[in-house]
Write a structure and sequence with these properties.
Elements (H helix, E strand, L loop, with lengths): L6 H20 L4 H20 L5 E3 L4 E3 L1 H19 L1 H8 L14 H18 L3 H19 L6 H32 L4 H9 L4 H17 L9 H7 L2 H8 L1 H17 L4 H24 L4 H21 L3 H26 L18 H4 L1 H14 L6 H15 L3 H27 L12 H16 L4 H15 L1
Antiparallel strand pairs: 1-2
Helix pairs in contact: 1-2, 1-5, 2-3, 2-5, 3-5, 3-11, 3-12, 3-15, 3-21, 5-6, 5-12, 6-7, 7-9, 7-10, 9-13, 10-11, 10-14, 11-12, 11-15, 12-15, 13-14, 13-19, 14-15, 14-18, 14-19, 15-17, 15-18, 15-20, 15-21, 17-19, 17-20, 18-19
Amino acid sequence: MNPLLSLPELILSVGAIALLMVAGWAGAKSVRIVSIAAVALLVAACFAVALPQVTGTGFGGLYRADAFSAFAKLLVFGATAVCIIIAPRFFAANTHAQDGFAGGTLRPEYPVLILLSTAGAGMMISATDLLTLYVGLELQSLASYVLASFMRRDTRSAEAGLKYFVLGALASGILLYGISLTYGFTGTTAYTGIAKVFAAGLTTGQVFGLVFVFAGIAFKIAAVPFHMWTPDVYEGAPTPVTTLFATAQKVAAVAMLLRIAMGAMAPAVLEWRQIVIFAGLASIVLGAAGAIGQGNIKRLLAYSSINNIGFALLGLGAGTREGVAAMLTYMAVYVVMTLGSFLVILNMRDADGRSVESITSLGGLSQSRKGLAAALAIFMFSLAGIPPLFGFWAKFVVFDALVGAGLWPLAAIGIAASVIGAFYYLKVIKIMYFDEPSDVLAGRTDRAEGMLITLCAVVIVAGYVMIPWLGAVTAAASTNLL
């Protein structure tokens, strides 16, 4: 077995343990060095993923590193690094020493927990056995429960952590029950073994196992009808943590779903396609309808997340290699759009530097902070799928895959449903450019955050030059998966 096969996860897990020792000895004063080291570890993990030697199957068929896992991990590690970089300024402005944060800054446990969560995400992506998948999922989830309630004296954060824990435990139980049923009726937990048994024809017990496995994963990607935790957790969790949930962790869960659907359960495509298509269409409609009446920008983006995962699921519903490539393309573009949107939200502050989350506070932003308003408008237009921004291409490749698979009525429904979602995105733009100034938002954009916002905006505006490269990469990833 290649000892470098799981090098990215080894870098993150060993590094997290080492940094935990540093935090334990040095205390809160080590937060800066621990954060910098955590970002460095994520960069090192990205380089490890790109090594040509880090490919193949190992650990007795429990783990696989290939082009698919490399693509997903690079997205996860990159988004995670951003979530560590943006944290200090947020916590410094929104916490106090009596809240358990020395000097108004976050504690060094924050980047350590994120590293452990990311190591679990890497295991989820590369898992080729249901038990490996579950171990990785729990490692990611246990750290995430703490992160959601990291501002423990904040009522909303504590509520978010509790809700995420209770509902997450329920989803883990559903998934574990599905794994148990699948093992009981196939005699194996290995993806290759399950695929061989499913190819001989599905029994009723195997169908039940499939349904429970997909239901458990649906919670992790916040797909309807297992979306109920998303608005409250996104609103209550610290904004950098919400950004992590909406980007890195969502990509990891989607990659996990793809490997199970197109690997272990590929012979049962007709059975699980019904589940995926229903969840996709329901997520598009409910996500769009639920966002219309929201007054909190983070809750609006929570419903936007539900809406967007619906479009991504339609790509999987095609059940083809082109559909998988379309889903990967969609997630890559979605990560950039969502990172940019949350970076703008982090710069919504009042005169005292505290975070402001009401949508009405954006009134007149185009007059007071033209660059920030323009960036948010770009991200909102792109999330709505309006050409010529890159978000339009993400939706186009999904619909093209559906048409190619002969599912053109589903593509037509998706196009019609996307019109509903455009309303609340345009509402945000209308408030920024046409409403009276609210005079609530003040301050300047942090240099690092400003650079990241600019980078995301440039990718969304000029992303079409990346289409040949992105198409080749996602095609190679989908070929490795199948």
